[in-house]
Design goal:
Blueprint (H helix, E strand, L loop, with lengths): L2 E5 L5 E2 L12 E2 L1 E3 L1 E3 L5 E3 L2 E4 L15 E8 L3 E7 L2 E5 L9 E2 L7 E6 L4 E6 L7 E3 L4 E3 L1 E2 L16 E2 L1 E8 L2 E9 L2 E9 L13 E3 L9 E5 L2 E6 L2 E6 L7 E6 L10 E3 L4 E5 L3 E5 L4 E3 L6 H4 L12 E5 L2 E6 L36 E6 L7 E5 L10 E5 L5 E6 L6 E6 L5 E3 L2 E3 L4 E3 L12 E3 L3 E5 L5 E9 L8 E7 L18 E5 L4 E3 L2 E6 L7 E11 L5
Parallel strand pairs: 2-3, 16-17
Antiparallel strand pairs: 1-47, 4-39, 5-6, 6-47, 7-36, 8-9, 9-10, 10-11, 12-13, 13-14, 14-15, 18-19, 19-20, 20-21, 22-23, 23-24, 24-25, 26-27, 27-28, 28-29, 30-31, 31-32, 32-33, 34-35, 35-36, 37-38, 39-46, 40-45, 40-47, 41-44, 41-47, 42-43, 42-46
């Protein structure tokens, strides 16, 4: 008698927390560079490619320190780029020369301002530099607000001023700054606001010092009628519309934002990474922890507090991306035989490689997949994660999801439909991809079964592909018990277009090889580099064996 198990739902996504016996049927303990279809299957992610053909600011690879992308809809549409200690911009891939310098450790912050006659983006350049504004052509340095340079009269609110600050944003009818420097003194907990409707006029006493939650305001983000103020261990909401009605309300004194790079905003929520708690979403009424499935990367000290400057939280293409420096730097080749190498430092891993300080992986959370969303994992073709990302609407009306590369001075176009490889700094990479299934034991952990040839419903994408499959037995992930290859010839009947913009070319049922005699089996399905692939269902077939008493 042959029994069978059908698995056609993979929407649980990545789960590091559950052990081999606790994974749900639709979850995976490991995957790379695959996307989960909301209907249940999985497929290789789309490719990435250079947006700018030459290095930003002529910065050499390895010397690039990406910080922030900001899409500004000004007189034209500009992508503002903060990297190293400079600010750049582009409209269609050709990057400008530097337009400003900053000492903000999280990069310059940007705040758009539009009225009937003007459109600017204001830039907070750090506590050591005057603020600036950019109109698409000219960059203007603003007068530093300080003693003798405040505009205390509402009757004549003239000025071309801005306090030195790490953070800025627009909210209601004012410009706001935080973490300021005034008269050569740093005020890391200070929040200031401009005159109403005059972003370059500031009164002496228009500020609040937010003292709870650790040292330093790490982010200010408008969300509906609230201005959220983040500190390392607290979140506050400023409500009200003027000096008489402003109120500071503590939302949490347990969690906060590690830095400005670790905050992202969508239409429905503000996302932020709190050290060492994880990633949270605030929807205007409460907090949700969306990090549980991958929290072991903190529990097992795979990242720590020293790596927070290399973390990025981004909302791009309706996806949340969390990029982290996980493991060792992919460019380090030190061994125990390397002359002068030492291995007793916190920055050196056991194997001798330098611990990563820039993103090596990017976790992607898709809120549209089942209730609660699902996580997957990306790496670029050259073995990095992505730095900050955003969605850029170009002047020609096309929408381009973009991200900064953490090593090469490039902006990358990501999620490029019908691209199946990565082009980074001019080099083409066929990136690795795979999906690891949960263990299958036919709900009987004790009895051995003879696992026959599984049947896979493989997505037909018009390419001849070979998918190597590794087989593991009895919860032992350290040894490959068997291996085989699933082949497809690429023949298809055109059926139009389905989800993800991929051709709906149908699916083929293909058989693998016998999986062998074991209590449980697990499959690792590897992709064919540079080619599209996907799986919609797996049917396991087995002969049960009686348990002797």
């Amino acid at each position: 008698m042959i029994d069978s198990l059908l698995v056609n739902d993979f929407t649980g996504g990545l789960n590091y927390r559950a052990d081999a016996f606790k994974l749900a049927d639709n979850e995976s303990p490991d995957m790379l560079n695959v996307d989960i279809d909301p209907r249940g299957g999985f497929s290789s992610r789309w490719g990435m490619k250079d947006y700018n053909s030459s290095a930003i600011g002529s910065i050499a690879s390895g010397s690039f320190t990406p910080k922030r992308l900001f899409a500004w809809d000004g007189p034209s549409r500009y992508l503002m780029i903060a990297a190293n200690d400079k600010i750049f911009h582009t409209t269609s891939g050709s990057v400008s020369a530097s337009i400003a310098t900053t000492d903000n450790p999280s990069g310059a912050m940007f705040a758009p301002w539009s009225s009937s006659s003007t459109s600017y983006v204001y830039m907070a350049c750090g506590r050591g530099y005057a603020g600036k504004k950019f109109d698409g052509t000219t960059t203007t340095t603003l007068t530093v607000s300080a003693t003798g340079a405040w505009q205390d009269s509402f009757a004549s609110p003239t000025g071309t001023h801005m306090p030195k600050a790490d953070l800025c944003t627009t909210h209601i009818d004012r410009m706001w700054v935080a973490n300021t420097n005034e008269n050569s003194t740093n005020y890391p907990n200070r929040l200031r606001w401009s005159h109403p409707s005059f972003p370059e006029s500031w009164r002496t006493d228009d500020y609040i010092d937010v003292v709870d939650g650790g040292s330093g305001i790490t982010g200010i983000v408008p969300f509906g009628d609230q201005l959220l103020i983040f500190k390392p261990r607290a979140v506050f909401a400023l409500t009200g519309y003027d000096e008489e009605s402003f109120q500071l309300v503590p939302l949490s004194v347990e969690i906060g934002a590690a830095n400005a790079q670790c905050i992202a905003k969508s239409e429905q929520a503000i996302f932020f990474f709190s050290w060492p708690d994880g990633l949270f979403a605030y929807n205007g009424s409460g907090f949700t922890n969306i990090f549980q499935a991958i929290h072991p990367i903190i529990d097992e000290n795979l990242i720590n507090e020293t790596s927070l400057s290399g973390m990025f939280v981004s909302w791009v293409d309706r996806l949340l991306m969390l990029s982290v420096p996980l493991g060792a730097s992919p460019i380090t080749q030190d061994t125990y035989e390397t002359v002068g190498a030492t291995y007793d430092q916190s920055t050196i891993t056991y194997g001798g490689s330098t611990k990563a300080t820039i993103p090596t992986v990017t976790y992607v959370w898709d809120p549209s997949i089942r209730e609660g969303g699902a996580w997957t994992l990306y790496k670029t073709g050259d073995d990095y994660g992505l730095a900050h990302a955003t969605t850029f609407l170009q002047t020609d009306g096309s929408r381009v999801p973009v991200a900064l590369h953490p090593y090469h001075a490039r902006v990358l176009k990501i999620n490029q439909i019908n691209e199946h490889s990565d082009t980074i700094a001019g080099t083409v990479y066929g990136f690795d991809s795979y999906y690891v299934t949960k263990w299958q034991d036919a709900q009987n952990t004790n009895a051995k079964k003879f696992w026959r040839r599984p049947e896979m419903v493989v997505r037909q994408l018009g390419e001849t592909i070979s998918l190597p499959v590794s087989v593991y037995h009895d919860w032992n992930t350290g040894t490959v018990a068997k291996s085989f290859t699933v082949d497809m010839d690429g023949q298809y009947i055109d059926g139009g277009y389905g989800s993800f913009g991929q051709p709906d070319l149908g699916s083929d049922v293909v058989k693998g090889h016998n999986l062998g005699l074991a209590r449980s089996v697990q499959l690792k399905i590897n992709g064919d580099a540079g080619k599209p692939w996907g799986v919609n269902a797996i049917t396991y077939k087995y002969n049960p064996r009686r348990v002797r008493t």
